[in-house]
Design goal:
- This protein is α/β, with parallel strands linked by helices and about 425 residues long.
- The protein is built from twelve helices and 22 strands.
- The structure holds ligand LLP.
- The site of ligand LLP has 19 residues, from α10.
């Protein structure tokens, strides 16, 4: 099944609702999510026994609620994410575990929380094993293993290899097995996530590493997690993921382990981006158009305070213009930037900060620019830099647009600040 749509340089509507109506009703900048796209992506992954959403990609409780209603469980990388999951209706107990805490450290709050509520833990460091063992002996744990190599769309999203802080180093496996034993913990599962936006060549290496590591740990293993990292298209020439091939590679590992251990082994997948990237649009208004020497700039009311991926990783996002007045059929090269008082506030940049122009329709101030494929790592990485409010978020389902987060007010931004005396 390939349900993806190609990216076009202009658009009049999002999920059947005119862009101009959305802008008028909710203001700009606003994140807009399409529930149907999320449902389609979930269905593509049904072959896996467990779909565990890496909620760090988009943790609005309305999105989590939608996931829950479709049988998707979640991971949590902080006590805040555990809290969100609970607010979205996830229980603390059940099979598969509705919430798994996965991290490389416990801050004190998280350790107290997982102990108090008996939340399953995926340990990414020997210290986590030690600390959990001391606080809550007798439990089952899973280990996140760094197999010694990694891959990602950017050096900053590569989570394997010796430059990465993530997971338990593969050569420390024996030590960690002994540590678990000493602390009366049973290693019931293994997890490997080598990076975000990976490919098949690296995937088959991970599969081999998983098989070998699981055989070394032995038959206490009842779950393996393939982590996340499934790539999604950001350009028309990007191919959609062959999910079947992805599943087959992992299923083979699972079957080999079942044969070896003589019991069933559950296969989990833990995507963030794949489930939510394509559902999201950042709707912004063009507020100024100006020339700087040879360069033309479209300046939006959205900046890297709203979407940080371009400034952090040089990430490419498709863009389209929604005309508020007379549409133009002409194109021109434009650099697209935001309102922040910082020259890096440019959406059309490559890794290393190189500013590029993009061929876009000729637009006017007051037209809208839609930054597409912005549903993953968009709003969740937003900030109040320059005292800009966090934007609104809207979920469109069944032709209706629901406000799922109010835009912050100036007073919200200073809430919690105190002048002493
Ligand atoms: N599982 C673990 C343990 C992870 O660390 C991550 C992502 C995922 C799953 C989900 O990965 P995904 O399926 O979304 O690729 N902010 C970056 C991505 C950082 C990913 C961090 N960990 C970006 O905007 O591309």
């Amino acid at each position: 099944m390939n349900t993806r749509q190609l990216f076009a340089p202009t658009r009049t509507e999002i999920c059947g609702i005119p862009v101009t109506d959305l802008a008028e009703k909710f203001g700009t900048p606003t994140y807009i999510y399409d529930a149907e796209t999320i449902r389609q992506r979930i269905e593509q992954l049904r072959q896996f026994d467990v779909i565990r959403f890496a909620q760090k990609a988009n943790s609005n409780i309305a999105v989590l609620d939608l996931m829950r209603k479709h049988g998707v469980v979640v991971d949590a990388v902080s006590s805040g994410e555990v809290h969100r999951a609970q607010r979205a209706g996830y229980e603390l107990h059940g099979a598969p575990h509705p919430i798994v805490y996965t991290a490389d450290i416990f801050d004190r709050e998280a350790l107290d929380l997982v102990v108090k509520h008996d939340i399953p833990v995926n340990c990414g460091s020997p210290d986590m094993i030690r600390q959990l063992g001391q606080a809550a002996p007798g439990r089952e744990i899973t280990l996140r293993i760094n197999p010694g190599f990694g891959h990602g769309h950017s050096a900053k999203t590569n989570t394997g290899g010796d430059h990465s802080k993530h997971g338990i180093w593969h050569e420390q496996l024996d030590e960690c097995v002994a540590l678990a034993k000493e602390n009366d913990l049973t290693i019931a599962g293994l997890h490997m996530h080598i990076g975000s936006g990976t490919d098949f060549e690296h995937l088959s290496q991970v599969c081999d590493a998983m098989r070998q590591t699981a055989l070394e740990v032995g038959s206490t293993i009842t779950t393996i997690s393939a982590g996340g990292g499934l790539p999604t298209p950001y350009k028309n020439e990007d191919e959609g993921l062959d999910v079947d091939r992805y599943f087959q590679l992992w299923d083979k590992v699972r079957k080999d382990l079942e044969t070896e251990f003589g019991h069933s082994v559950a296969l989990e997948i833990e995507p963030g981006r794949f489930l939510v990237a394509e559902c999201g649009y950042l709707l912004a208004e063009i507020r100024a158009i100006k020339k700087m020497g040879e360069n033309l700039f479209y300046l939006l009311d959205a900046g890297f305070n709203n979407l940080a991926r371009p400034i952090l990783y040089g990430s490419y996002h498709p863009m389209s213009i929604a005309f508020s007045g007379k549409p133009s059929t002409e194109f021109q090269n434009a650099i697209v930037g935001g309102p922040l008082c910082e020259s890096g506030d440019i959406f059309t940049q490559e890794e290393g900060g190189f500013v590029c122009a993009r061929e876009l329709p000729v637009a006017n101030v007051g037209d809208f620019l839609v930054i597409e494929c912005a549903g993953a790592y968009g709003f969740v990485m937003a900030s109040n830099y320059n005292s800009k409010p966090l934007s609104a978020e809207v979920l469109i389902d069944d032709g209706k647009a629901h406000l799922i987060r109010k835009r912050q007010t100036p007073e919200d931004i200073v809430a919690g600040e105190v002048i002493p005396g």
